[in-house]
Amino acid sequence: MNLLVIEDDRKLNRMLCEILEKEGYTVKACTDGEEGAYYLQQNAYDLALVDWMLPGESGPDILRESRRKGIMTPVVMLTALTAVENKVTCLDAGADDYLGKPFDSRELLARVRANLRRQAPIEELVVLRYGDLVYDTKALLLACGREEIAVSKKLGLMIELFMKSKGQALARATLFARVWGADADVEEAILDNYIGFFRRRLAQIHSKMSLRTVRGVGYALVEEKEGR
């Protein structure tokens, strides 16, 4: 699981990373609002912990902007502002949960686990369905009707993203971040190769779904209309 921590208090930031990494999570740490907003909007994380008071851009502002852009990553807001009106502001901005400072690490981890469970029920993680496609995320098998084909782990991650997006265009930056990691040093041509791999797999199993290029945005998995 990939988690994002946006907290400007460097000591607390390090502590959060240590707590989460000890539990086996992979953590990306940011210390200001603008950097945090950039990484959150890469849509590369399973959950984000976001401080309210940040230099550059506040936690609620980051959330409002991200939700407007369709980023639905679960967010737990961290703040010393615990009045009811602050909680309402936080939740209305798009936060999924709220944790007041100071907090106990056990409660922090419990809230992380709870929000991850709500985000991804077990049954959704195993088999995904969209259009005429069925993708088994555990067996790495992509099927259409009676035909199926095995895919690599990297291609499987890409297929999973497109299946879950249900026709919504995914930016190249999002694909890079989710499949290879936000900080990975990967050449642009690698993504082009994998887009080609996916298109060939769709043709091999005779799917009516098509991976369409959306100019200026990225790619979308859509059903081809007859006569196109």
Automatic annotation (TrEMBL):
It comes from the Bacteria. Residues 125-223 bind DNA. PROSITE patterns: OMPR_PHOB, RESPONSE_REGULATORY. The keyword Phosphoprotein applies. The modification 4-aspartylphosphate is found at residue 51. InterPro entries: CheY-like_superfamily, OmpR/PhoB-type_DNA-bd, Sig_transdc_resp-reg_C-effctor, Sig_transdc_resp-reg_receiver, WalR-like, WH-like_DNA-bd_sf. Signal peptide: none annotated. The keyword Phosphoprotein applies. It comes from Gemmiger formicilis. It holds the Pfam family Response_reg. This is Stage 0 sporulation protein A homolog. GO terms for cellular component: cytosol; protein-DNA complex. Residues 125-223 form the OmpR/PhoB-type domain. May play the central regulatory role in sporulation. It may be an element of the effector pathway responsible for the activation of sporulation genes in response to nutritional stress. Spo0A may act in concert with spo0H (a sigma factor) to control the expression of some genes that are critical to the sporulation process. PANTHER family: REGULATOR OF RPOS. Residues 2-116 form the Response regulatory domain. GO terms for biological process: regulation of DNA-templated transcription. GO terms for molecular function: phosphorelay response regulator activity; transcription cis-regulatory region binding. Keywords: DNA-binding, Phosphoprotein, Transcription, Transcription regulation, Two-component regulatory system.
